[in-house]
């Protein structure tokens, strides 16, 4: 049985992973290898299908249904994804979330948990970004919750 604590821990792991990739980049470490490891820990590419629509993805490869596509989004440098500059390379120093789409913003249905709300990010220049997010986690064979759906976007701004 998935608990709200499990879901919150999985979301926090996503936030912490994003910070870790940027820190490795800033410190001259192998941030690409770290990002690949974090993607394996957080996303369900190894056992299942992942629907991933990243916040800043655009062009003809918006959806990232492969680990290679997710890695390109987070660290850039893949010529197959020329629009990706490396979202994690913004060097986010603080990342947190809320599940504010409903009173608790978490739905649990057996081995699936759904969250909706916002992710807040502050980079090393103290610039803050808020994104709308929907995460769906699945309990995998090893017992860990991993993302099988990740949809994020900048909030709508009527102009």
UniProtKB/TrEMBL annotation:
Domain of life (superkingdom): Bacteria
Protein name from the UniProt record: Phosphoribosyl-AMP cyclohydrolase
